[in-house]
Each structure stands twice: as structure tokens, then as C-alpha cells.
Amino acid sequence: MTSKAFNNFITAIIFILIIVIAIIAFVLARISLPTVIDLFKHDICSVEFNLLLASDRLKFLPYFVVSVAAFIALLTYLREKAKLRNEIEEKRSKIFLELAKEGLEGAYNMLKDQNNNRITWVRASRDILHALNLAKEIKTSQYLEAYRLFEEKIRHKLYLALTMLDEKTGARQPLPPQFFYGVADWKGAKNLDEVAKETSAQIKVGSVSIDQNIEESQSTPLSENSVVAIYDFLEYPKDYDDPLKKVKVWDEGWEYSSGVSQGAKRFVSHKTSYHAFSGKLYPINKDNKSKGS
Questions:
Q1: Torsion of CA 176, 114, 134, 237, to 10 degrees
Q2: Separation of alpha carbons 11 and 138, rounded Å
Q3: CA 209/CA 171 separation, integer angstroms
Q4: Which of 119-123, 172-176, 195-199, 201-205 has the lowest mean pLDDT?
């Protein structure tokens, strides 16, 4: 039996004990407490008081007190256990957060110079995969949110590192396929067949000598697995909860805008009123249908 299963077993037993003790305490209270209440209605040492004091019902009062004490003790134990478990979980989540951040940051640092070194890409992809596995162990909500924020930051920085800026349009373009063959002049006009031949392993013939090592054949193309792992990370996960979906778009007219948001409100008003396509502008009606103008 694992420690987690054992702890769950003990907790279940304690819950059962709490229920049993609560039932016992309730029954004992029904028996003894009415007599205790009646005692306060009479003078001490009076006949009625002495008769109630000698009642068999009061014999159950010590058992009631003990059962209540046991009930409180078990509840206190569960509360302290839950508190300790939360503290341990928080410390554990913090450790995994730091390790996951270290892995992602390390992967970015290895790729930020836009190199196409096979060994570097393999190491970076492994760091990312390890980081993603470590992140699964983060259970505390605030640390999980902090990790998601950091992951998005690294994803964006990697996107910038693994794309090219078009100086004319300002848009970012994907790296060409030649890049992934590991050649230095990957921006050249060579087709993929030529690049594949250039980077293929070469057979070299030579004599074997104790004085020098045999030159090993180098494989320059990037590992397919490392490329897939890194680019899979660049994609947002399917279960990604986009916080922007919770933002309510302004519905008031731009006429009522003022201050720093004037331009932004005019843009939003225009963008939600018209749909531009193929050089033409189409007004958007309330049914979200477009009509030509």
C-alpha cells in the first residue's frame, strides 16, 4: 500500500470515527443534558435538586463530555493535517515551479541566437519536455498560474527567436526548411535535395594510427524529434484557457470616448461595425451578417 493510499485509509477511518462519536454524543446529550438543565431550575441542596442529582441520567454526563472531547480532538487533528498538507503542497509546487522555469529558460537561452546546431536543439527539446513534465506536479493554484504566465512568456520569446523579421512588411516569417538541415548558409537559394546531399554522412578512408583519433562522420541535420518537440511547444495547448475570452468588448459608441482611450474606442467601434475583405468594406448588422457596400 502506497503512502498516499495509507493516508487516505487513515483519513477515512477518522471520518467514520467522527460520525460514530457524533452520534454517540448526540444520544448521550439527549439523555443527560435535560437533567443538567433541570438542576439549574432548583436551589442547591433542595429536595428536587438532590433527586435530580441522584438521577441515573447524570451517570451518562461524563461519557458525553468524553465523547465531545474526542470529537473536538479528531476535528482538530483533521484541520491540522489539512493545514500541514497544504503547506507541504505549496512548498512542493514552488520547487517544481522553479525547476520548470529553469528548464524553459535554459531551452530559450540555447535557441535565442537562432542557431541550427543538432546537439543544441536536442538538448533544448529535452529541457522543454522535462519542464512540461515538472509543471504537471504543480498543484497550488497561484503557482500554477505563475507557471502558465512564464510559459507564455517563453513561448513568445521562442517564437521571435525561431522566425525571421521581414524588414519591408514588419511581419514575421517562418524559418525556411533549409535551416533545419543544419547548414551554415541556410538563407541561400539551394533546393532541399541539394542541401540533403551536402549534409549527408561521408565515408572517409584512412589509416588507423595510435597517434591520432579517427575523424568521425558528422550528422548536421536537426533531429526530427527535437524539431517536433520544440514546435509543438510553440503551439498553444488545446485546453488553453484564454483570459482574453473573458474580456467584455466596449459596446458604447465612440462619441462618448475621452482621454487616453479615445483612439482605441474609435478603432473598436469601427472594427465591430464593419468587416473588411478583399479591399471592400461590409457593414455588420445585428445578426452578424455582412452586406456589400
A1: -40
A2: 23
A3: 55
A4: 201-205
Whole-number CA gyration radius for the chain: 36
User: Which cell numbers hold the place of 106?
Assistant: 535554459
pLDDT-derived band at 275, boundaries 50, 70, 90? confident
Could you tell me whether strands 163-165 and 172-174 are parallel, antiparallel, or unpaired per DSSP bridges?
A: antiparallel
Give, for 291, the enclosing helix (H) or strand (E): none
Average pLDDT over residues 96-120: 96
- What whole-number distance in Å separates Cα of residue 176 and Cα of residue 291? 40
Q: Which residue has the cell 524588414?
A: 167
Long-range contacts of 3-12 (CB under 8 A, 24+ apart): 11/78, 11/81
CA distances from 65 to 20, 60, 197 (A): 15, 9, 88
| Closest residue by Cα to residue 104 from 267, 234, 284 | 234
What is each CA distance from 189 to 166, 184, 197, 221, in whole angstroms? 17, 13, 15, 17
Name 174's Cβ contacts closer than 8 Å, sequence gap at least 6.
163, 164
For every residue of 61-113, DSSP letters joined together read HHHHHHHHHHHHHHHHHHHHHHHHHHHHHHHHHHHHHHHHHHHHHHHHHHHTT
Phi-psi region of 179 (alpha: psi -120 to 50; beta: other; left: phi over 0): alpha
Global pTM?
Answer: 0.70
Summarised one tens digit per residue, pLDDT across range 236-265 is 888 888 888 889 888 877 787 788 888 998
User: What is the arithmetic mean of pLDDT over 172-200?
Assistant: 87
